[in-house]
Amino acid sequence: MDVPAAELTAEVAYQIGALRVFAEAAGSAVSYVKPHGALYNRVVRDDEQAAAVVAGVVLAGGRLAVLGLPGSRLLARAGAAGLTPVEEAFADRAYTPQGTLVPRGEPGAVVHDPDEVVARSLGMALDRSVTARDGTRVPVAARSLCVHGDTPGAAALARRVRAALEDAGVGVRSFV
Q1: DSSP codes, 93-111
Q2: What range does the domain containing 35 cover?
Q3: In a shared domain, residues 55 and 97
């Protein structure tokens, strides 16, 4: 969708505000923002949309961390706005040689083999790199690692990734 910047800013602020109400009702709080899906991928390179998302976060108030792909326009804009940018890597997604995610509509975009997901996670944490779908090594400097919740067996897979990281001596903790 091609959403005008002012509309995107308002939508982001509204969604954060609504989420805060539900989080507080449950005795919790919102601590970070992460665009989802196509918007996540678009704000990697689209400066206007990245600025609109960050403006929405700022409009919603608070000093929320913003998750995004390393080197993205989103993280640059978040840092410039005084928010905490958090670089994120993906355990269960394929990467392009440019360090972006392979679009979901393309074959092989999602990594389904649990052993491969664990191996990729270890490589990103220990070697700060991942093998792109063409076989090249791509640098990945991230503070957060995503395992998609819609992956079958995601909770067990996340526990397995965490155990492998801890066994390798990688400290696993919250970024906020």
Answers
A1: B-B-TTSSBPPTTSTT-B-
A2: 1-86
A3: no
